[in-house]
Design goal:
By secondary structure, the protein is of the alpha+beta class. It is built from 10 helices and 12 strands. Strand 6 and strand 7 form a beta hairpin. The structure holds adenosine monophosphate and magnesium ion.
Length: 323
């Protein structure tokens, strides 16, 4: 067991930073292009990787953003914002060199433990003030074994979101800013009319029409459907608030799935008794670096309905390959 408190703290700090960026750029419906994502993404990753460098200095890190890109691709104005926000959050003077060092901490290292970081997953949701998460997955010997997922938009009664974590095969949820830890389990529903299915909001991420064909092929047309951004979909299934999330292999693109979009989610769902596989029913393979190069698509479920979904997906993919 490792003490995840420093990562909880970093996730909360990152969410505060993200909220400050949203207030600065996006409040009042104003859309600030992609700059808000840039500033919040680098800021959040710097906070998470800083915490890892301080508390788990020998662990490897696989994270979405890189120091070299921060130096070369980010405008001076955006850099100044990241520096100011991090200095305010940490209560210390932060320099560009600090940020680059944190962003790249653990990059390219080999270790028994690897942290897999998505500083803002669901960037479209973040920009549109919908849902996004801050995610840190933990691979042990390249298998998903732990997770911390901050979901500021999770629909809790206090409307302040939830913080999820998993370790040693057990999954928990707590109020985002701390409070009573609750052990969570995937639901045991399997009656189609009782099921809750999740899919991406963005049509460019998942064709809604293909998803509907899969639901029909799996006999799940009576299930409730909700569109939701980000890895919060994994958290919903782990918490027993939904039963299915699927991502089909793309028809017209070879764009791979990236490990940071899935590592934390898979660890959380598995610890909660759910199941995550590719469309062939194989486990997701995190041994291939930044991408899930050995897998086609992703199916996440409470486990009970997994077999019928695999069959439905297989039918639809077979139809598509004949068309
Ligand atoms: P979403 O679940 O739509 O919020 O997307 C979450 C993350 O998954 C983002 O980082 C997207 O870039 C990535 N993503 C979405 N759709 C796909 C896809 N079909 N293949 C690979 N990555 C995707
Ligand atoms: Mg992502």
């Amino acid at each position: 067991m490792i003490d995840l408190q420093p990562i909880f703290q970093a996730v909360r700090q990152a969410a505060e930073l993200c909220r400050a960026v949203q207030e600065m750029h996006l409040a009042g419906g104003e859309k600030g292009g992609h700059e808000p994502v840039t500033v919040a993404d680098y800021g959040a990753q710097a906070l998470l990787c800083r915490a890892i460098s301080l508390h788990f200095p020998d662990d490897a890190v696989l994270a979405e953003e890189q120091g070299g890109q921060f130096v070369e691709l980010v405008s001076d104005g955006e850099k100044a914002q990241v520096i100011r926000l991090l200095s305010e959050t940490l209560g210390q003077r932060v320099t560009e060199a600090d940020i680059v060092r944190w962003l790249d901490h653990g990059y390219g290292c080999e270790a028994e433990r690897t942290w897999v970081i998505d500083p803002i997953d669901g960037t479209r949701g973040f920009l549109a003030l919908r849902n996004y998460v801050i995610a840190a997955g933990l691979l042990v010997d390249k298998r998903p074994a732990g997770a911390v997922i901050g979901a500021p938009g999770y629909p809790t009664p206090d409307r302040r979101g939830a913080l999820f974590h998993a370790q040693s095969g057990v999954a928990y949820m707590q109020p985002f800013y701390g409070g009573v830890l609750k052990r969570i389990r995937a639901s045991d529903r399997d009656e189609p009319a009782s099921l809750r299915v999740l899919e991406s909001v963005e049509k460019s991420h998942a064709s809604h029409e293909r998803m509907e064909r899969v639901r029909r092929a799996a006999g799940l047309e009576d299930a409730a459907l909700e569109r939701l951004d980000s890895m919060e979909k994994y958290a919903r299934i782990a918490a027993g608030d939904a039963e299915l999330y699927l991502r089909l292999p793309r028809l017209f693109s070879q764009r791979p799935h990236m490990v940071w979009d899935h590592a934390a989610g898979v660890a959380l769902v598995q610890a909660a008794g759910g199941l995550a596989t590719d469309v062939d029913g194989s486990p997701l393979d995190f041994t291939q670096g930044r991408t899930l190069a050995n897998n086609r698509g992703v199916i996440v479920s409470n486990g009970r309905i997994h077999a019928r979904v695999l069959e439905g997906v297989a039918k639809v993919l077979a139809e598509e390959s004949q068309a």
